[in-house]
Amino acid sequence: MVRRNKRHVNKTPAIDEVYLRHLTVDEALLKLDRCLNDAFMAGLYQVTVIHGKGTGTLRQIVREQLAQHPLVKSYRPGGYGEGEAGVTIVELALK
Hints:
Ribosomal Protein S8, Chain: A, domain 1, alpha+beta, 2 helices, disordered N terminus, 4-stranded mixed β-sheet
């Protein structure tokens, strides 16, 4: 029998990545904004955005949104071992 601490059962842990593949643009942008806000409030400094390679449309829209988002300090394409063109690494602004 697994026992769990009742204080932690209903809490969602802060995550440092967001999975946007197979979402519409509107769904993806809403989920991205929610993730950036949650990560910032949790004190994280970096978030990995998984948008996939595909045609590149979602990647382009995500990066356009990141360029104007007030919580984003900088962003870059994923490197070797990070997901390469299928992800974008986001550095969040300091508090």
